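Lecture notes, continued. The same structure-token format from the folding unit now serves as the input rather than the output. Read the line below as a description of shape only.
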């Protein structure tokens, strides 16, 4: 099976610099150069064996399973008019609607490639990002929630019963949290800095109704680095995956927790992201669950390119290498131990007696 990298030129035409009647925003962090930096790094590494595939536009009925038609039409009109600021941070230009259709469509196409056995792993390098876009509200640079649309498609059209989403962007994936808050078909796990935009994702938010226990928020304090983030993946996320047994693993892959990124205050290194991806890839191989990543944040261009490359290396590594991520230097980090104890109410496999001692 191939390893697939989904892209589309429309992603570069989503112009966040300005729109008619407004002064130029020359330093908007969510800019086309993010994708250029990723492509430059991967090109230097001969694309790491990934096959480049054009992302199609999403079918409207697939998109409206998450975002109501009235909202979709409002984004289309704003772009057709030449552009607009949808809030203080989220701007669209004339070509942004098409870019957003391909960003969501790429995530959906990725699901088909993974489930049909045409890709062993895949990554969507598309923009605008998506995990902050609520069903009827753009925010946080996001227009449509690409990963939520893909997960909804996997459940509805591909008839999966269990999808797991790991969001490792430094900002909480508030929309994904919202969309699947009452679902027991989607296990949503978010590691994010708190306090930080958008101000959601407390540890006590565990979902509602049938979905209670299927929303897992793992907030970390400013300054948290590899030891904390890798430990949470190894000792919380991976055991949760083994307990839930997903048929598909999707990743909201943001890289703004990197120590070089100025939009947050965490200190994950490129090797930290590699270790996270190796741990997750090893678990997915053991579970026979295909894994696909969807680009979210990451605004330090050099760090972004290197970290995406490290992620793709981990996802495509031979099985023995994929499961060989190093353990945190001090074993189970206290924050991971606390999370396991807290979550054992819904996931007994994470109880204290099952913690691997470091």
């Amino acid at each position: 099976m191939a390893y697939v990298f989904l892209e589309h030129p429309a992603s570069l035409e989503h112009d966040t610099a300005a729109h008619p009647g407004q002064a130029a925003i020359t330093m908007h962090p969510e800019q086309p150069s993010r994708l250029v930096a990723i492509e430059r790094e991967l090109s230097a590494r001969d694309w790491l064996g990934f096959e480049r595939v054009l992302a199609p536009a999403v079918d409207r009925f697939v998109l409206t399973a998450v975002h109501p038609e009235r909202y979709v039409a409002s984004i289309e009109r704003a772009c057709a008019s030449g552009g607009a600021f949808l809030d203080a941070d989220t701007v669209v230009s004339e070509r942004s609607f098409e870019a957003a259709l391909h960003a969501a469509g790429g995530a959906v196409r990725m699901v088909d490639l993974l489930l049909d056995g045409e890709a062993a792993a895949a990554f969507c390098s598309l923009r605008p990002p998506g995990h902050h876009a609520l069903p009827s509200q753009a925010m946080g640079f996001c227009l449509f929630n690409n990963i939520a649309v893909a997960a909804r498609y996997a459940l509805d059209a591909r008839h999966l019963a269990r999808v797991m989403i790991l969001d490792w962007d430094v900002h909480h994936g508030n929309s994904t949290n919202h969309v699947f808050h009452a679902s027991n078909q989607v296990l949503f796990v978010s590691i994010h800095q708190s306090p930080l935009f958008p101000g959601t994702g407390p540890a006590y938010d565990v979902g509602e109704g049938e979905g209670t226990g299927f929303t897992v928020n793992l907030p970390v304090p400013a300054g948290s680095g590899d030891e904390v983030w890798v430990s949470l993946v190894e000792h919380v996320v991976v055991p949760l995956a083994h307990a839930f047994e997903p048929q598909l693993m999707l990743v909201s892959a943001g890289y703004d927790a990197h120590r070089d990124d100025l939009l947050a205050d965490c200190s994950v290194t490129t090797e930290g992201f590699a270790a996270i991806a190796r741990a997750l890839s090893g678990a997915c191989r053991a579970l026979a669950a295909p894994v696909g990543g969807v680009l979210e944040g990451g605004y330090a261009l050099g760090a972004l390119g290197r970290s995406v490359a490290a992620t793709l290396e981990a996802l495509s590594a031979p099985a023995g290498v994929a499961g060989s991520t190093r353990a945190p230097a001090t074993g189970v980090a206290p924050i991971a131990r606390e999370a396991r104890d807290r979550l054992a109410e819904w996931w007994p496999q994470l109880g204290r007696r099952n913690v691997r001692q470091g």
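Point for the exam: The first strand starts at residue 2 and ends at 7.
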